[in-house]
Amino acid sequence: MSLVLDPAAQDLLFREARTANTFTDEPVTEEQVQAIYDLVKYGPTAFNQTPLRITLVRSAEARERLVQHMAEGNQAKTSTAPLVAILAADNEFHEELPQLFPAFPQLKDAYFSERPAREGAAALNAALQAAYFIVGVRAAGLAAGPMTGFDFEGVRKEFLDDDHTPLMVVNIGKPGEDAWHPRSPRLAYDDVITTV
User: How far apart are CA 143 and CA 136, in angstroms?
Assistant: First the structure.
């Protein structure tokens, strides 16, 4: 059975998409970010908990503060990307559950009254949302450069608070010159899929 999604869209979202390492200076608009969010907000999470929080780094001053926490190999591209997003998990996501999952009003206290349970759920579900965010960036015709090479605690202290755990930093924009490394190999179907 073939995929229903148009082959050009498959290429845009998956086959031709790569982590971008350089970007043009064309700005990423607030309208583009809104369109990305309006698409990816429908991605699934357990109990619709939606713990992902996004901090957009636009100002030169904020960019400077972020770059100092990036690994050396990520500093130049973070300095020059038109937009940078810090993706974090909100460990207090449960406060929104009565609104987000009205079918079970007791959910907030029944499953998520303890911080360790919230942290585990937030990390897993925000990471799932982060993957959708990257696909959404690609759907907008932009390139994403997700990175985990940074000082997590430094970024948390600089931009977040004790209730938020950074997951990744994503450079966003139109790909620049020599933006791509060669495509790395992928595992074969039989190496990943097991039927029992």
Answer: 10
> 23 φ, ψ to 5°?
-140, 155
What does the block give as tokens for 29? 């608009």
- Spatial CB neighbours of 93, under 8 Å, sequence gap ≥ 6: 49, 50, 51, 112, 118, 121, 122, 125
Q: Name the residue with tokens 């229903």.
A: 4
Q: Is the pTM of this model over 0.85?
A: yes
Residue range 50-86, pLDDT digits in tens: 999 999 999 999 999 999 999 999 999 999 999 999 9
For every residue of the chain, DSSP letters joined together read ---SS-HHHHIIIIIS--B-S-B-SPPPPHHHHHHHHHHHTTS--GGG---EEEEEE-SHHHHHHHHTTB-HHHHHHHHH-SEEEEEEEETTGGGGHHHH-TT-TTHHHHHHSSHHHHHHHHHHHHHHHHHHHHHHHHHTT-EEEEE--B-HHHHHHHH--TTEEEEEEEEEESB-TT--PPPPP---HHHH----
Buried b (16+ CB within 10 A) or exposed e, 36-67: beebbeebebebebbbbbbbebeeeebbeebb
Over residues 14-37, the mean pLDDT reads 95
